[in-house]
Amino acid sequence: MLILILAFAATPAHSQESPYIVTYDHYLEEPGSLEVEYFSTFGTQRAGNDWIAYWAEFEYGATAWWTTEVYLDGQTTFNDSSLFTGFRWENRFRLLQREHFVNPVLYIEYEHTNGADKILKEVEGHDVEADYAEPNSVARQDHDHELEFKLLLSKTFKGWNFAQNTIATKNLTGGNPWEFGYAMGFSRPLALKASAQRCNFCPENFVAGVEMYGGLGDRYSFGLNDTSQYLAPVVAWNLPSDWTLRLSPGFGLNDNSHRFLLRWGVSREFSGFGASIARLFGGR
Amino acid sequence: MMTSTWTRFNVSMRTHKAFLRRLIDCFAIAAVLLPAPALAQTSSTPTSKDKSVYAELAKAPQKAAARSNPLASDPDAVAAGGKLFAQHCAECHGDMADGGKKGPSLLAPEVQQSTPGTLFWLLTNGVVRRGMPVWSKLPEPQRWQLVSFIKSLAPPHAAPENGEKASQP
């Protein structure tokens, strides 16, 4: 059904996507557009098996100030097993109507995942590498119902985007304390002017940057002790054929972090998706 | 060693494929549950919406409206702007910029008589309440290229040269 809708009704739209994989800037999905994304993270694991975590995102621009998104997560741990690890529903709300010196966006997410989830879409609290060493059969027994709030601050100046996210999460099961984390990044297209010709390798199609993210402890032990921290160069290639490819090798900055994370992603934006759905139900 | 790596790769690829198939099925159901505001938005009255978007042009601060297009004399600006328009704007404003289901005509006098600075300001800030997103994610030169293209759409007698001397609505 989805394929039919996308193939016959919604039209691909060229997107100018940011290269970030963890950090959010303040730009929301265009209203009525659906962006379908698939990401994968390969992670090295000391005292355990390396793994590949993957997730799909379906990001929909409900309005120009509200984007809603569903994630479906899974992972494969080498010499162990593969499993579906849960879902997330995220909403981002633009708080100010116009562009300002810094632009705030409120992010609210509900996630229902199990302990084997490894997508590392955000790092918070005292998440450390050792947490991911458990066999899947053990880890999947834990179930998290988590509420996550982020304040996304972002600014674009002379082609440079600067973004900072503050994260607060509350696991609704087991009386866990509030946990905190952060993500920040900057990026810039390789060229600011567009060329007059349609081209795959024009420098303006590439956006490169760096992001950094990690935990900040919890309510009772705020700070960097027993947290994991990562630094990751990021690059996105916005193809004229409406696809965006992203690549990001990430490096752990302390002994609690995975030494290496290799992330990649592919996405495509379909405009007019909301109108197509509306037509299905008799709308104009 | 090679066999082990190949086996891992095969297992990983099979898992990815199975995972993707499952996701597509799941999303077909999720798509039906899309939020109602989005559906309502696509069926709003174009005329009143167009007017309210045009009215936003008058809200450009004087300083912003007075800015001139630094690419006004760039011979490639209109062509590059046309490419950007097709990529980012045509979906709402129509392939010929004459208006679409979601966006008003850019050939209207309200737009064509606006200064380049006014159009640049509107592109940068959007009209979020009326469904037009902010386009500051496009670098400044690309927004000016878009302005060059939009101004080039005016009939020769309708707009002053480069739009530099046009008055704010």
Q: Can you put this structure into words, describing what you see?
A:
The complex is a heterodimer of chains A (284) and B (169). The two termini of chain A are 20 Å apart. Chain A has a twelve-stranded antiparallel β-barrel with strand order 2-3-4-5-6-7-8-9-10-11-12-13. In chain A, 7% of the residues lie in helices and 51% in strands. By secondary structure, chain A is mainly β. Chain A is globular, with a radius of gyration of 19 Å. Chain A has one domain (2-280): Beta Barrel (Porin), CATH 2.40.160.40. Chain B is globular. Chain B is an all-alpha fold and 169 residues long. At the A-B interface, helix 1, strand 3, strand 4, strand 5 and helix 3 of A face helix 1, helix 2, helix 5 and helix 9 of B.
- Measured between the Cα atoms of the first and last residue of chain A, the distance is 20 Å
The CATH homologous superfamily of the largest domain in chain B corresponds to: Cytochrome c-like domain
Q: Fill in the CATH topology of the largest domain in chain B.
A: Cytochrome Bc1 Complex, Chain D, domain 2
Which H/E pattern describes the elements of chain A? HEEEEEEHEEEEEEEH
Query: How would you spell out the order of helices and strands of chain B?
Result: HHHHHHHHH
Mean pLDDT of chain B: 77
CATH architectural name of the largest domain in chain B: Orthogonal Bundle
Compute the number of strand runs of chain A: 13
Instruction: Outline the low-pLDDT stretches of chain B.
Output: 26-46, 159-169
Largest sheet of chain A: 12 strands, antiparallel, barrel
Q: Total strand count of chain B, please?
A: 0
- Assembly level: heterodimer
Radius of gyration from the alpha-carbon trace of chain A, in angstroms: 19 Å
